[in-house]
Amino acid sequence: MNMLIYGLVTGILFGFLLQKGRVLRYDRQLGALLLKDMTIIKFMLSAVLVGMTGVYLLNDLGIAKLSVKATILGGVIPGGLIFGIGWGLLGYCPGTSLGAVGEGRWDALWGVVGMLIGAALYAEAYPAMKNSLLAWGDLGKLTLPQLLGVSHWLLIPLFIAGGIGLFSWFEKKGL
Amino acid sequence: MDENNDRGWNPYLAGALTGIVSTLSLWVSGKYFGASTTFVRTAGMIEKSIDPERVGTMAYFIKEAPKIDWQWMFVLGVFFGSLIASTTSGSFHWKALPDMWQARFGPSRSRRALAAVVGGIIAMFGARLADGCPSGHGLSGTMQMAISGFIALACFFLGGMLVARLLYGGGGKQ
C-alpha cells in the first residue's frame, strides 16, 4: 500500500514539474524533433545530470542500487526507431500523454487509446520475438563506466561540463 | 491565450528539480521513473475482464502481470500533477488540436485522432520492443549511464526526426 502512495506522490511531483517546464506540448516535442525548440532537451538533460549525480551518490553510499536494463541490440535498436516513428506522429510520450490530458490537451487521449492497443498487440507478438529478435545482440546489463573501465566519478563531471557547454550553445543560438 | 505567458518555469530549473525528485524516489521507494510497462498492465487488466483464462496463459502478461503497482500509480500521478499545476496557474485550457498540427493539417479532429491512435500504437509497440520509453530509457537509463539508455534515446530521436521532417516538410512551420 505504501508503495502505491509513493508512486502516486512521485507521479504528482513529476507531472507538476513537466507542466511547469512546458514540456507536455505537441509543439514542443515536434519542435525538438525539427531541431527548432530545445525546451524538452533542456528539461531532460538537466534532470539527467542532477539525477546521475544523485543516483550514483546513493549507490556508492549503499542506500540504493542501480537498475540497469540489459542492452539487447535486437530489441533496443528497432524498438527505439519504431517508438520514434510513433512519437513523431503522436507528439506525446507514454508518460507525458497523461500529463498533456491533465492540462487540457485532450487529443493526447487518442494517443493513450492507441498505446493501449499497441501494448496489447505487443503481448500477442512477444512469443514470436522472444527467441528471435529479442535473443539477438544481448550484451547484458552494461553501463558506460563498465564499458570504458573507468570510475563513474570521472565521467559524471564530463557529462555535466558537456551539458553546460551544450546549454550555453542553445542559449547563444536562441533555441 | 499566449502560451508563453502561462507562469511556467525555466526548463533548466524544472528539469533539475525533476532530477532531485527522481533521486528522492530512488531513496524512499527504490524506484526509477518509467511509464510504458503501465500500458501493458492496463491492457492486460482490460483483456482480463473479457477473457481471464487466455490472459493467464499469455507469456507477456505472465512477465508483466496485469496489476496496479508503483509505476501505475506514478503514471496516474503525472495526470494529477499536471492538472494541479495548470489549474493553479490558470494555464489549463481544453484544446482539441495542437497549434502546429492545425496550421499544417487543418481543423479536422478525426484526422488528428487517427494520426494519434496510429502513432500511439506504433510508439507503444516500439517502446515495449526497446524495453522502455523516454522515461525509462531516456531519463532513468541515461542517468545510470546505461548503454541501453543511450542507444534507445538516440534511436527515439532518429525515428522521430524522420517522421517530423516527413510531416512538416523539412523546414516545417516558420
UniProtKB/TrEMBL annotation, chain A:
Source organism, top-level taxon:
Bacteria
Q: Which Pfam families match?
A: Sulf_transp
Q: Which residues cross the membrane?
A: 41-58, 70-88, 108-126, 147-170
Q: Which UniProt keywords apply?
A: Membrane, Transmembrane, Transmembrane helix
Query: What's this protein's name?
Result: Uncharacterized protein
From TrEMBL, chain B:
Task: Work out whether the entry's keyword set contains Cell inner membrane.
Answer: yes
Subcellular location(s): the record lists:
Cell inner membrane
The record ties this protein, via InterPro entries, to: Sulf_transp_TsuA/YedE
What cellular component terms from Gene Ontology apply here? plasma membrane
Q: How does it sit in the membrane?
A: Multi-pass membrane protein
Entry-linked Pfam families: Sulf_transp
Signal peptide (from-to): none
Q: List where the protein spans the membrane.
A: 12-30, 70-92, 113-130, 142-168
Q: Which UniProt keywords apply?
A: Cell inner membrane, Cell membrane, Membrane, Transmembrane, Transmembrane helix, Transport
Top-level taxon of the source organism:
Bacteria
Q: Which family does it belong to?
A: Belongs to the TsuA/YedE (TC 9.B.102) family.
Protein name as it appears in the record: Uncharacterized protein
